[in-house]
Every structure is written in C-alpha cells, then in structure tokens.
Amino acid sequence: MIFNKTPLEGAYLLDLEKRGDDRGFFARVYCEGEFAEHGLPTHYVQVNNSLSADKGTLRGMHYQLEPHAETKLVRCVRGALWDCLLDLRPESATFGKWYGAELSAENRRMMVVPKGFAHGFITLTDDAEAFYLVDEAYAPTHERGIRWNDPAFGIEWPIEPVVLSDKDANQRDFDHEYHLQPAAV
C-alpha cells in the first residue's frame, strides 16, 4: 500500500501497490503492520456498506464524539464518489480545514478518516457503493453532524447535491459547544 499524506494531520489517501501480470493483479488493501507503522488503528469493530442509487446523493458530514470517536477506512467498490473529511480536533494545527478526493471502483483508492474528523461524500455516478471499516461501534448519544455547506468551513463540493436525507438537510452550522460536547443522557 502507498500511504499518501493529505494536508490534514493524521489523514491518509491510500493507493494500492499492484503487482500484476497478464492474469490481472494482486494488491494488499490492509496490513496490520503497515497501519501500525503509520499510527493508524489495526482493530475494526464494524464493516459498513452503503449504496446510493442517484448521482448527486450527499451523505454527511457525520462524526462521533469521544469516547466513541471513530476512525474510518473508506473505499468505493462501485461507481465513484467524492470523499470529504473535516478536521474538528480543537488542538490540531489543521482544525477547521477540509480535504476531498475522488474514490472510485476504477482507481481503488481508500481514505483514512481519523478520530475527531467529520466525514461525508457525494456520489459522482448512479449506483455508487461505499464499503468502510470503523474502529468504534455506533453510539447514538455521541453522534453529531454538521451542515454540508456550513460557510464556516467553505467545503468546495465538486457537484451540487440532488439527494439529501432529512437528517443531513437539517444539520446545524458548527457550534463549538454543541458539536464537541456529548449529549446529556
């Protein structure tokens, strides 16, 4: 695997290191040792799969608060999507910065979304399917989301969304107290 650093501290865009011949190719998509060398989680507790039927479907920007913050390893296995991450770690030098890249079945790239980042994507094709590993279980009391077009961050989505869930369409703009504090139980 080729670990490409992004402009955001701790986030990586991964490319496969293909070894091929006339039959096709072989490539490793996960290696515990290589992930550990890069300071990334090596234990995942969930594997998620999402299918978006229509081009322009936007999902995000979602994250979970500590102690349930998640690291995600995201790959597009059918079609194409533009994957976006936003650093929400107050102590980070890249707090409030975002990064996006195209993930597709063809380019086989993967995005590592670290703990403390909001994550979302918009589909660039019909029938785009994402497959991702998560190192923490879903915890509804620690779930948060930020409006996809919050002017505080200025994310430059490659296309305008056509399909948004009610949940994503009604997310709030960023508010430090709400977005970085767990809900009262």
TrEMBL record:
According to the record, the segments passing through the membrane are: none
- As given in the record, the signal peptide range reads none
Q: Supply the EC number(s).
A: 5.1.3.13
| Pathway connected to this protein | Carbohydrate biosynthesis; dTDP-L-rhamnose biosynthesis
As one GO molecular function, the record gives:
dTDP-4-dehydrorhamnose 3,5-epimerase activity
Stated family: Belongs to the dTDP-4-dehydrorhamnose 3,5-epimerase family.
The protein, known as: dTDP-4-dehydrorhamnose 3,5-epimerase
**Source organism of the structure:** Botrimarina colliarenosi
